[in-house]
Specification:
The protein is an all-alpha fold. It contains 10 helices and no strands.
């Protein structure tokens, strides 16, 4: 016999189990980090990908407050500053990233992009080559799933593509060089270390 005034013990038990699962997931997402600041770095990367640069800066900065030597926070902050056209700040963060992790190919690839954007093509090439030497897989660029999720039909140019292009253009006389094509330059992706 079940009246409207009585509670169902099974429903209460199910709600308690659901609340427990939600609590565990929340604790795992927020309370457990391999490295202090990891959670903020993940959030910062999401904000960066969504073009919410001020929020990304906030998340990466919070990660650095927790852990001043967090390599991915410095890298994320550098990339974000570069996207915001705060190039001096970006350069400083790339320098910090490389000082902390001198073998991180993504840092050199992105520093190459920074130099590329500022017209320092030989420095861009040097950094692209360093990235490639450290991690040949950086050649691959984003996979089909990333392109699908970001509605990108064609594969964006990779570090290797840019090296070939710059080398060919720099061999030409200065008046014949085409080193910037704004439409194509916008397609060049940033390089992060996947979560």
């Amino acid at each position: 016999m079940n009246s409207r005034g009585r509670f169902d013990a099974k429903a209460v038990y199910a709600l308690l189990v659901l609340a427990g699962i939600i609590g565990i997931v929340f604790y795992w997402r927020v309370g457990v980090e391999d490295i202090p600041g990891d959670y903020n770095v993940k959030k910062g990367n999401y904000r960066l990908e969504d073009g919410l640069f001020e929020q990304a800066v906030s998340e990466f900065s919070q990660a650095l407050d927790k852990n001043p030597d967090h390599v991915q926070a410095h890298l994320g902050l550098a990339i974000t500053y570069m996207q915001m056209n705060r190039l001096d700040d970006a350069r400083a963060e790339f320098d910090k990233t490389i000082a902390l992790a001198p073998d991180l190919a993504a840092a050199y690839a992105n520093l190459g992009i920074l130099y590329d954007r500022t017209g320092k093509y030989q420095l861009a090439l040097d950094n692209y080559r360093k990235a490639l030497a450290l991690d040949p897989e950086i050649l691959e660029g984003p996979g089909w799933l990333w392109r699908f999720m970001h509605n990108v039909e064609e594969r964006p140019p990779t570090v290797a593509d840019r090296i070939v292009y710059l080398e060919a253009e720099l061999k030409k006389p200065p008046e014949e060089r085409v080193l910037r094509i704004q439409e194509q330059d916008k397609q060049q992706r940033m390089y992060k270390v996947d979560d």
